[in-house]
Specification:
Layout: E1 16-17, H1 30-43, H2 58-72, E2 81-84, H3 87-98, E3 104-109, H4 113-121, E4 125-132, E5 135-136, H5 138-147, E6 152-155, H6 169-182, E7 185-189, H7 206-209, E8 215-220, E9 232-235, H8 238-245, H9 248-253, H10 258-269, H11 272-298, E10 312-316, H12 322-329, E11 334-335, E12 337-338, E13 351-355, H13 361-376
Parallel strand pairs: 1-11, 3-4, 3-6, 6-7, 7-8
Antiparallel strand pairs: 2-9, 4-5, 8-9, 10-13, 12-13
Helix pairs in contact: 1-10, 2-10, 3-4, 11-13
This protein binds pyridoxal-5'-phosphate.
């Protein structure tokens, strides 16, 4: 009998896919979830198997709010959290409720390529705004605001995918001001906020979300626990939460993932989430330095700013078309993601995204050695 696929990963045998942005399967905390499930089943509460309240399981939201209050150092109201099936589902639902086909949205250039696919599904007109080492170029966005009236701007403000860049505090404040002035939404995808290695990130957009109706913080357990949970949250102003919870999708299906929420509540309340994040940060920090060392050794022509958190290196290879390189490196059993994938206008050809989340230090070094061998060929 042929084996049917279980995961989204499709790496040929012997390959090292340095572009892979999924977490290492060996780092997914099966034991932690197992213990949480035992505690939950022992409590004998069947409500997590019922259609859930539209906004998401209240006990879970309370546990999440306590975790977030501690993590952000700012009080988080469980009444202003909305449970999602991950950041992707949040983006899709926000598009459904707040946009119509043909509407303009702004995105960072470069941006997370799969979010661009969601926006495409909704027929949105994507206008890219350049970024630099401090994130989104606000001055250029102001110029674009004279020309366009965006429904929202989609940003990944902290340890961005793919560039690794973090939006500065000053620019965060400016962006929130502009959103209020021009009345567009800031959809802040903060999935890497809890994975800093060298630098404490600036205030999350979540801290503005409760008071400013234009700011919506999207987050997820995919990077800090496990993507297979399909669990995340939105933190937003009451008016936004009301609109989300009042949607037809929730009215019919009830709140998202009540059963998984009940398990993750146990993980949070037992302190398991904090421990898991601490051990991921240690592990990923080691991998970040391993990838950096390998690039210095085998790919000296590569130019990049060392990321301070998240999963990615955004590597500039002057004079090299990364799409061509990707085709060529297949013979060396190594893979990458070409920069053009992350550009809504097909730019960034001389860039590639490399990830340090999926492999340990040895495989990272071996993969970069293969890339280097192909480049000097
Ligand atoms: C910026 C960003 N947003 C969202 C996602 C997907 O999140 P989720 O698994 O919660 O749908 C990813 C995963 O790579 C990501 O990098």
């Amino acid at each position: 009998m042929t084996e049917l696929d279980i995961t989204q990963m499709d790496i040929p045998p012997g390959f090292i896919d340095l572009g892979m942005g999924n977490p290492d399967i060996d780092l997914l905390p099966l034991d932690l979830l197992g213990r949480a499930a035992e505690t939950h089943f022992a409590a004998g509460d069947r409500r997590s198997l019922q259609y859930g309240v539209e906004q998401g399981d209240g006990n879970f939201r309370r546990a999440l709010a306590d975790f977030l209050t501690k993590a952000y150092g700012v009080h988080v109201d469980p009444g202003l959290l909305f449970v999602t099936a991950g950041a992707s589902s949040a983006l899709d639902l926000l598009c459904t409720l707040y946009t119509h086909p043909g509407d303009v949205i702004f995105v960072e250039e470069p941006s997370y390529f799969l979010a661009l696919r969601i926006f495409e599904d909704h027929g949105l007109r994507v206008v890219p705004i350049p970024t630099d080492n401090d994130g989104l170029c606000i001055d250029i966005m102001v110029e674009k605001l004279a020309e366009f009236n965006p429904m929202f701007i989609y940003i990944i403000p902290t340890f961005q995918n793919p560039s690794g860049v973090t939006l500065s505090q000053v620019r965060r404040e400016k962006l929130v001001e502009l959103a209020q002035l021009f009345n567009f939404l800031v959809v802040a995808d903060e999935v890497y906020h809890f994975l800093p290695y060298n630098q404490t990130p600036p205030q999350a957009f979540a801290a503005y979300a409760e008071h400013v109706e234009q700011v919506i913080s999207v987050n997820s357990f995919s990077k800090i626990l496990a993507p297979g949970l399909r669990l995340g949250w939105i933190q937003a102003h009451g008016a936004v939460i009301e609109r989300l919870a009042g949607s037809g999708l929730l009215d019919s299906g009830g709140g998202m993932n009540p059963f998984t929420s009940a398990l993750v509540r146990e993980v949070i309340e037992s302190g398991g989430l904090e421990k898991n994040i601490a051990s991921l940060r240690m592990e990923y920090a080691g991998r970040l330095y391993a990838l950096d060392a390998a690039l210095l050794k085998y790919l000296p022509a590569a130019k990049y700013t060392l990321p301070q958190g998240g999963f990615f290196f955004w590597v500039h290879l002057p004079g090299v078309d990364a799409a061509d390189l990707r085709r060529n490196v297949q013979d060396y059993k190594v893979d990458l993601r070409q920069g053009a994938l992350f550009s809504s206008q097909g730019g960034k050809q001389e860039y590639m995204r490399l990830s340090f989340c999926f492999y340990g230090p040895e495989a990272l070094e071996a993969g970069v050695k293969r890339l280097g061998a192909c480049l000097v060929k």
